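User: Can you predict the 3D structure of NAD-dependent epimerase/dehydratase? Sequence below.
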Amino acid sequence: MKKALVCGAGGFIGGHLVNRLKSEGYWVRGVDIKENEYDNNNADEFILGDLRDPSVAADVVTSDLDEIYQLAADMGGAGFVFTGDNDASIMHNSVLCNLNILEEAKHKGVKRIFYSSSACMYPEYNQLDPDNPKCSEDSAYPAAPDSEYGWEKLFSERLYLTYQRNHGIEARIARFHNIFGPQGTWEGGREKAPAAVCRKVSMAEDGGFIEIWGDGKQTRSFLIVDECVEGIRRLMQSDFSGPVNIGSEEMISLNDFARMVIDISGKNITIKNIAGPTGVRGRNSDNRLIQEKLGWAPSTPLRVGVEKTYNWITEQIQKKVNVEEAVEV
Ligand code: NAD
Ligand code: GDD
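Assistant: Sure. Here are the predicted C-alpha cells for NAD-dependent epimerase/dehydratase:
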C-alpha cells in the first residue's frame, strides 16, 4: 500500500486530494494548522500542526512515505492577496512551510514531492489585455508577478527544483489557475470570485443587485476542483517535473461570470460594478504543455462546476440561517 503525506489537508484542495488518494487505496497522513471544516477529514492520520515549526515537519515527514503533496500556504482571493496588507505573512509563512518540508524530505529520503504553485507567478506585463493574456509556461521570465504571493510561488518553484537537482528528490510542480468548487472558502475575506459571486447571488433578493469589484471586464478562467485533483494525480504519476499549468481554458469576464451565476439562480438580479482589489486585467490557462506531456487537459464545462458550487454554497447559507434561528428560539 502506498503512503502519502498531504500538507494542507485541512484546506480546500488538500481535503479533496485526501479523498482521492483514499479512493485509490493509499494510506494517507494529513497535516494542517486547522481541522478541515467540511466532510473531507478522511485521512488515516491527521496531525494538527504548524509547518513553520521545523519540529512539526520532522514529525510528519517519515521515511516510510512514498509521496508528499505540499499544498499548505497562506492563501486567498483578490481581497486577501492584492490589498498588500498580508504580504509579509504570506511570504514568511508559505516559504517556511516549503523550506521545512523539503529539508525533512531530504533527510528522510522521500523520493517524490508535489508542489502547488500558482498562475499568480506569471508576469503582469503579459496579462494587461483582458482578451489576450499570455500564460504559457515558458513566459514566466523576465519575472514580474503582480503580487508578493506570486513572487513567493516563483521562488518556491525554484526551491523545489534545487532539491531535485542537488538531492535527487523528484519534484512535480503545477501552476493552478483559480480552482473552485464545493468545500472551498466561500466567506470571511479569503474567498475567490467564483465562491464570492455564488454567495452574493444566493443571498440577493429577486429583483435586487450584487456588487462586482472592478469594471467587470477583467477576465479569468476557473477550474472545478475535481479536475484539479485529476491533474495533480496525473502529473504525480508522470515522468514530467513541470512546472505546468493546471487550469481551464474557458476564459470569461467577471460580469459574464456573474450573469452565468444569476442565470443558474433563476432570479432577476442586476450587477453593480464597484471599486475593489482587481489583480491582473486578464488571465487564462494555456493547456498546450499539459496536453503534450500528459496527454490530458481539463474538459469540464465551467457551467457544470458552477451549478454544483452554487447549490453547495446555497446549502451552506441555509445551514447558517437554521443555526441562527435555533439560537434565537
Ligand atoms: P486553502 O487555504 O483551503 O488550503 C491551504 C491550507 O494550508 C489551509 O488549510 C491552511 O490552514 C494550511 N496552512 C497554511 N499555513 C500552514 C502552516 N503554517 N502549517 C500547516 N498548514 C498550513 O487553499 P487551497 O485553495 O486549498 O490551496 C491549496 C494550495 O494551492 C495552496 O498552496 C495555494 O497557494 C495553491 N493554489 C490554489 C489556488 C486556488 O485557486 N485555490 C490557485 C493557485 C494556487
Ligand atoms: N474575491 C473576489 N470577490 N473577487 C471579485 C469579487 C468578489 O466579490 N468581485 C469581483 N472580483 C474580481 C476580482 O477583483 C478579480 O479581478 C477577479 O474577480 C478574480 O478574483 P479572485 O478569484 O479573488 O482572484 P484571482 O483570480 O485574481 O487570483 C486567484 O487565483 C490565483 C490563481 O489563478 C487567487 O486565489 C490567487 O491566490 C491564486 O493564486
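The two ends are 51 Å apart (CA to CA). Residues 139 and 218 are 20 Å apart (CA to CA).
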